[in-house]
# Entry
Amino acid sequence: MNRLSDYLQHLRQRLEDWEYQFDRFQHRMEDINDEWRDQARERLAELKQRSDTLRAKIADLESQSELALEDIRDGLDLAWDGLRLGLLSARGEFGQGAD
# Structure
């Protein structure tokens, strides 16, 4: 995936997939006890903020040229990893497992 448009499409698809996982996690939160639910909601808010940050970085990348791709890619990959690990951690912590 050397082309900017391919990379952007790949990132958008990954983000859409993880947003689906967020929705599933949010619906499952209703099945846990109140104490854990409050903590899960806090964690979900943090993950939503990370998702918004990643979406903003993707928008920034869309306005850049192919030459800027390599410079920006590392930051996007780090943001993606933080989002992915945050959701996996939250799901594990609140007994949701990793589907």
Summary: The helical segments are 4-28, 34-62, 69-93. The CA atoms of residues 32 and 94 lie 8 Å apart.
